[in-house]
Write a structure and sequence with these properties.
- The protein has 511 residues and is of the alpha/beta class.
- The chain folds into 2 domains: 69-216, Reverse transcriptase/Diguanylate cyclase domain (Alpha-Beta Plaits, 2-Layer Sandwich); 227-488, TIM Barrel, CATH 3.20.20.
- Helices cover 50% and strands 18% of the residues.
- The chain contains 18 helices and 16 strands.
- The chain has helices spanning 5-59, 69-84, 100-107, 109-124, 149-163, 194-207, 218-237, 277-286, 290-311, 323-326, 331-341, 355-358, 363-374, 391-396, 406-411, 416-432, 444-453, 469-476; strands at residues 90-97, 132-137, 140-145, 167-169, 172-174, 178-185, 212-215, 243-252, 258-269, 273-275, 316-320, 349-354, 378-384, 401-404, 435-438, 457-458.
- The N and C termini lie far apart (151 Å).
- The structure holds ligand C2E and calcium ion (2 copies).
- Residues 262, 320, 352, 382 line the site of one calcium ion.
């Protein structure tokens, strides 16, 4: 009898199947475990990526990709600590783009964003490589450099130059400039004071027109304190009746008759004496006080003009209008209401608006100009020649008068350049049918040159200094209190003064 092979083999076959099953199950299980582990690793990687993205979002500026302030501050802490341990000093640069608002308003936010990213790229690519660069917010940036006082000054200048290079943003060719303030640790202050010092230095650059750099100077902090005090006092100046207006005549270049009087603001401070508008107007503009002050000026000018009219004085009055006022929705309405209340025809009031403001070209400025013109008021473009007007942009502005900036009048004697600038302005004004006024005329040589070049009206110390409304009325009345100030001025003609022929009014004639 042979061995019971079949059952054995069937047993063997059966257990082989079992083993195979076990093996397969094992393989499957380990496959699953590996797959699970892999999956977990992928998940963990994804999680880590998401997390670092989140951290990045928290520490990076979403628009420019630059570091944000907290990380930058940490880098500054490290640099300061390293310096305390004997490493090199740390230079902190605060960068503020000049007139960035006009880019946003004029070209839209897309171009504004492109400008910010371009500037951020330039800052990051600066050489020597910054220790850190961050966006402080808006149009301000901070750069941390490994540099001492001497080197930091040069680097500040180079950085301002780099940011001035022209570029194209969203198909628009642009040129920006920036104000760069520099403060160095430990030379200029402790760690907590350093950012404030650099920001102060940056603001001091802005105050003188931007496009440059300045190293922190302790005098800046004193100025700042004084400015803060002045600002507090300025808030009360209107209600305490400390503001007053003086008037400076404009004269016809040919006949020397008075055509208008420009109102100029003075602040009679109880302790500091008379404060110039050159000091407090910029302060008022920066801190939102120019609108109430400007309203006071307008109503006071209208009241004064009505009083002069009552005395028989026929001349136009001019007021200086700041860009902030012009951007107020109800500016034109306010002016017209004041004029109506005092019975002054709108054609008797000139609004002097600086060329820089006039060329801002924002929708608001243009429409305010248009509404002023429609209402019959005169617009004069002040400080002309200092801005960047083109003939094309001037043509769009409904102005009646260009006022050549004093700087060109001053330079008339010294150089041909000023003469050819005045000549070009007069020609441009002729083409556009605008009158030309030259301001700051102090000498007879300047007067003769300006008359020869074809200016229509003149204004300056040669004819009269700014004076009180009463002094002006007395002078007009023949009480010659101002005789010394202008020998060629003929006050007897005052009452017969013709308004400047504008608005299509022909020639001289008393109105
Ligand atoms: P502006 O409108 O260009 O005024 C001319 C400035 O030159 C006045 O200075 C005037 O006193 C001065 N000036 C006139 N003739 C001569 C001259 O022959 N030689 C010299 N060296 N200077 C002369 P002021 O009164 O100090 O005013 C400075 C600026 O303050 C004005 O410049 C104007 O921009 C601003 N301002 C004055 N009053 C107001 C105001 O009521 N509102 C606004 N927003 N700004 C005002
Ligand atoms: Ca003026
Ligand atoms: Ca001026």
């Amino acid at each position: 009898m042979g061995p019971p092979l079949a059952p054995t083999s069937s047993f063997a076959t059966g257990s082989a199947w079992v083993w195979l099953g076990v093996l397969l199950a094992g393989a499957f299980l380990s496959y699953m475990v590996i797959a699970l582990l892999r999956h977990r690793a992928v998940l963990r990687r994804r999680l880590r990526a998401a997390n670092s993205k989140l951290v990045e979002l928290r520490t990076r500026d979403p628009l420019t990709g630059l570091m944000t302030r907290p990380d930058f501050e940490a880098r500054l802490d490290e640099a300061v600590a390293a310096c305390d341990r004997g490493a090199r000093p740390a230079a902190l640069l605060v960068v503020g783009l000049d007139n960035f608002r006009t880019i946003n308003e004029g070209y839209g936010h897309q171009v504004g964003d492109a400008v910010l990213t371009t500037m951020a790229r330039r800052l990051s690519a600066f050489s020597p490589a910054p220790l850190a660069v961050c966006r402080l917010g808006g149009d301000e940036f901070s750069v941390l450099l490994d540099a001492g006082v001497e080197q930091a000054g040069t680097l500040g200048r180079r950085l301002a130059e780099l940011l001035r290079q022209p570029f194209t943003a969203e198909g628009t060719e642009l040129q920006m400039s920036a104000s760069v303030g520099v403060a160095v640790y430990p030379d200029h202050g402790s760690r907590p004071r350093l950012p404030g010092c650099a920001a102060l230095a940056m603001r001091s650059v802005k105050q003188v027109g931007g496009a440059g750099h300045a190293m922190y100077d302790p005098a800046m902090a004193v100025d700042q304190r004084e400015q803060a005090e002045l600002l507090q006092e300025l808030r009360h100046a209107v209600e305490r009746r400390q503001l007053e207006l003086v008037y400076q005549p404009k004269v016809d270049a040919r006949t020397l008759q008075i055509t208008a009087a420009e109102a100029l603001l003075r602040w009679q401070h109880p302790q500091r004496g008379t404060i110039s508008p050159a000091v407090f107007i910029p302060l008022a503009e920066r801190h939102g006080l120019i609108v109430p002050i400007g309203r006071w000026v307008l109503s006071e000018v209208c009241r004064q003009a009505a009083q002069w009219r009552g005395l028989g004085l026929r001349m136009r009055v001019a007021v200086n209008v700041s860009g902030h006022q012009l951007r107020q929705e109800d500016f034109v309405r306010f002016v017209l209401r004041q004029l109506a209340e005092h019975g002054i025809p709108p054609s008797r009031l000139t609004c002097e608006i600086t060329e820089t403001v006039a060329m801002e070209d924002t929708a608001h400025t243009l429409s305010a100009f248009e509404r002023l013109r429609k209402a019959g008021l005169h617009v004069s473009i002040d400080d002309f020649g200092t801005g960047h007007s083109s003939l094309a942009s001037l043509r769009r502005l409904p102005a009646a008068e260009l006022k050549i900036d004093r700087a060109f009048v001053q330079d008339l004697a010294s150089g041909d350049n000023a003469r050819s600038i005045v000549q070009a302005i007069v020609q441009m004004a002729r083409t556009l049918g605008l009158r030309v006024v030259a301001e700051g005329v102090e000498t007879t040589e300047q007067r003769d040159a300006l008359v020869a070049l074809g200016c229509d009206e003149l204004q300056g110390f040669l004819f009269a200094r700014p004076m009180s409304a009463t002094a002006l009325a007395l002078w007009a009345d023949g009480d010659d209190a101002q005789a010394g100030s202008a020998a060629m001025f003929r006050p007897s003609l005052f009452q017969a003064t013709a308004p400047a022929p504008m608005d299509g009014q022909a020639g001289p004639g008393v109105r």
